[in-house]
Design brief:
The protein is mainly α. It contains eleven helices and two strands, in the order ααββααααααααα.
């Protein structure tokens, strides 16, 4: 829409400056109109380059009810909790369950299970939350490579959701051995959870 708007404005300007005091700017407006209108048309062609999709591809996915666009909506829901009053219990659980059931290889199934668990947990449905978390734990337990951040998620949930010390300890040890996606970004929630479940109250308070 930005390309179309600028292209149309430049086209109108190009047509009106001829014969006026601003005729010297005709070439500039002609080039601007051409570039923006070409970009607008090309961007409407459904194309994919690596993990990126053109606007045309995104529009096509929306109109056809693509699972990929639904997956993006789920990701957007989780991100919205940071900057809006939206809570996990407000998530569209039917959408989450439907996309998780699709079992598409390129989708992060672990992420879908965890946020489904968060939905039930925030709504006070502990049994359902625990069930989703155990499914996520069983799924990630099969992974050969794990990230420290994700192991930390399991430490926290095993502690506060299941109160399972053995599971929390297992993922704590994996967290210590795993690589971090961002070593400079420290997350103290898993530390607090582990110290709490192992009775180290002073360390938990410091965390």
């Amino acid at each position: 829409m930005a390309n179309l708007s600028v292209g149309v404005i430049a086209l109108v300007a190009m047509l009106t400056v001829k014969g006026s005091n601003y005729q010297s700017t005709w070439d500039y407006f002609a080039q601007l109109a051409t570039l923006d209108l070409v970009f607008f048309v090309v961007n409407l062609i459904p194309l994919q380059e690596a993990a990126m999709y053109s606007d045309g591809a995104r529009i096509y996915q929306i109109l056809t009810g693509s699972a990929l666009e639904d997956y993006r909506r789920i990701v957007a829901m989780t991100q919205a909790t940071v900057v809006t009053p939206l809570r996990q219990r407000d998530f569209d659980i039917q959408l989450i369950d439907r996309i998780a059931a699709a079992d598409i290889a390129s989708f992060d199934q672990l992420f879908l299970l965890l946020i489904a668990g968060d939905y039930y947990f925030d709504g006070g449905r502990i049994e359902s939350a625990s069930e989703k978390f155990r499914e996520a734990e069983a799924l990630y337990d099969q992974e050969a490579n794990s990230w420290a951040e994700r192991c930390g998620l399991f430490v926290t949930r095993a502690t506060y959701l299941l109160r399972d010390r053995a599971m929390a300890e297992k993922w704590w040890q994996r967290r210590l051995a795993a690589k971090s996606l961002n070593p400079e970004k420290k997350n103290y929630f898993p530390d607090c959870a582990h110290f709490t479940i192992t009775g180290r109250k002073r360390d938990a308070q410091e965390a």
